[in-house]
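Sanity check

After download, print the first record. It should look like this:
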Amino acid sequence: MDTFTRHKLLKNHDGEYELILYLDDTLTEFSQELGTKSSIRFDIIRQATLLLNNRYPSIRITVVKVILGGFVISTLPVAADRAFANTSIQQSDSNFFYSVAPGDTLWGLSKRFGTSVDLIKTANNLPSVTLTIGQMLVIPKAIHTVQSGDTLYSLSRKYNTTVDNIKEANQLTSTNLSINHKLIIPAVLEIPQTPIATESTSVPTSITHTVVAGDTLYSISKKYNTTVDALKKNNQLTSDVLSLGQRLTIPSTQTVAPIPEPTTTTPTLPDTYTVVSGDSLYSIALKFGLTVDELRARNQLVSDVLRIGQVLNISDKAVSSPISTVSFTTHKVQSGDSIWSLSIKYGIPQSELLQVNGLTTSSMLSIGQELRVPVHNIPVKETVSPNHGELLNWWTEAQYVFTIGKVAKVTDLATGKTFSIKRTIGANHADCETVTVSDSNTAKGIWGGYSWTPRAVIIEVDGRKLAASMSFYPHEREYIMDNGITGHFDVYFSDSTRHIDGKSDPSHQVQVEQAAGVR
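Expected structure tokens:
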């Protein structure tokens, strides 16, 4: 519940501040219930704590007064550690509530935090687009309708948040969920807010920034409209080196400009963005003024998991046409089914099947249980020439064309020699085996025996020619016996990664691009 509609700071003679919370005048029962219902008292303390910690972290506030209808109905002393005296309620460390500042609009907030006007209105039960200064808003990244198999844990993984954040945003007292119940998925706010100055107070504009992965003094100076020299001087820094978690005080003379209303000029977006350490779908969407749903759609993502080095489409023009699409079908579990067997049957990774159904590798299936199964439709791409292959991304395209269990014809680009292989396993790339002894002998002739050296090859499967890179050094697990080799070998596609460290292998990527005719 939104217990108060606005707030202000009052400075006393000792240079300290009082935080005044104005309750909605319609809450006539609040004054009677405040002293008798702990849940009501908890709510006001929770929201006051959020305001103190997120909005005024460096201001000395000694008391919070709650006002209803012009009367003070409660006074909450604030201790030095910013906890409330005479209570056993712990501070909340959530940071997804936003206090409306002068100049704020729903459109501006939606662009600032990478969401939409409709989502903000729905999450906060707003009847109109009118905002009040000091009004507390939950900034949602999504409104999720609970489906069979959903759990708070699976939703927290899906939306890259925490169980506690979802519980607090929806005021849940347990982890039980009801089918079709709509849950607010809150966005964790990473943009510090400056205090509101009212006609009766003069509030310092100093704010604190906590260093995160990717931060530099230059990027922080641009974010807060200041200079590197000012930051160094204000924080007594002798070098430009920053540490994760380090707290920097932003020079107090700086202010954050309000977000302007939309104009007819549309900012130019880059075509693509390469994922770096610390990135999430939400932070990338926020960076480029998109919503998470738009980012997912432009990259055909069925998971929120990102990989360092992954290239994402940002602008509309970066998305090739036609684009891959994902639909869903339903499978009713039968005797003998397992997650692994179903992933093979439907040609999707086991991890994806688990995730879309909110399951783990230890989950048990029951006969008659209905599972959602993703169906990936990968359109054929143009090739440079008939002798080259389609350049398909492993994670979003190639693994759904060359699925586990499929047999393919391999053509070595340099020699033109061919042989057959079967994909038997592999997640980061395709782990394959030759089908017959003759196929193994042909491969040995091309590579001069067993070799880790990657070569550009064309993988022909289901009538499609795909650009790939292959090494021929059989190792570890094998599924095909009597084929003249022991173990499997590696086949890479665009953006495939190594199993050992999850990183891209540049030598293989060069060969993939040669097979596609783009290098």
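If your output differs, re-run the checksum step. Summary of this record's structure: Confidence is low (pLDDT under 50) at residues 28-39, 85-94, 191-205, 253-266.
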